[in-house]
């Protein structure tokens, strides 16, 4: 259970935590190193470890990366340049200068809910993650957009 007010990605970065890939189980280990003083802040910046049986679904996702990083992340480049993103009409590819690859997940109101670091993922992992966490597109858009 989380009883904390969750910090923004920027707040966490200022505190020395990378919210995109900090697991709450890591925060629980801080006591072993006499670092209980930063445990509460850590808990406000972490993601629950993947033990939930029901996966949360999001209305929209944005994959952000710098094209300058494609050499370091050829699998992410391969995903972006392939047909795979076309399967996800609620996925946006956004090029951000200097950024390592991340996926931002938004609710139906456009509020950022989660940021996930994907630099170690391959093309199949990205596709599987999006299939699991993105809501399927509404079929009724076909009828509302008919000419």
From TrEMBL:
This is Selenoprotein F. Residues 61-134 form the Selenoprotein F/M domain. SUPFAM superfamilies: Thioredoxin-like. GO terms for biological process: 'de novo' post-translational protein folding. InterPro entries: Sep15/SelM_sf, Sep15_SelM, Sep15_SelM_dom, Thioredoxin-like_sf. GO terms for molecular function: oxidoreductase activity. Pfam families: Sep15_SelM. Keywords: Endoplasmic reticulum, Selenocysteine, Signal. Belongs to the selenoprotein M/F family.
């Amino acid at each position: 259970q989380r009883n904390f007010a969750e910090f923004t990605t920027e707040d966490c970065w200022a505190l020395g935590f990378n919210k995109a890939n900090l697991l709450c189980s890591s925060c629980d280990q801080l006591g072993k190193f006499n670092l209980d003083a930063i445990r509460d802040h850590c808990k406000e910046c972490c993601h629950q470890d993947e033990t939930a049986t029901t996966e949360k679904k999001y209305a929209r996702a944005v994959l952000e990366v710098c094209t300058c990083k494609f050499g370091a992340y050829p699998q992410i480049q391969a995903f972006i340049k392939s047909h795979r993103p076309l399967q996800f009409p609620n996925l946006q590819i956004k090029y951000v200068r200097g950024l390592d690859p991340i996926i931002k997940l938004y609710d139906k109101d456009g509020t950022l809910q989660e940021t996930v670091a994907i630099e170690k993922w391959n093309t199949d992992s990205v596709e599987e993650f999006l299939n699991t966490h993105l809501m399927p597109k509404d079929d009724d858009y076909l009828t509302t957009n008919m000419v």
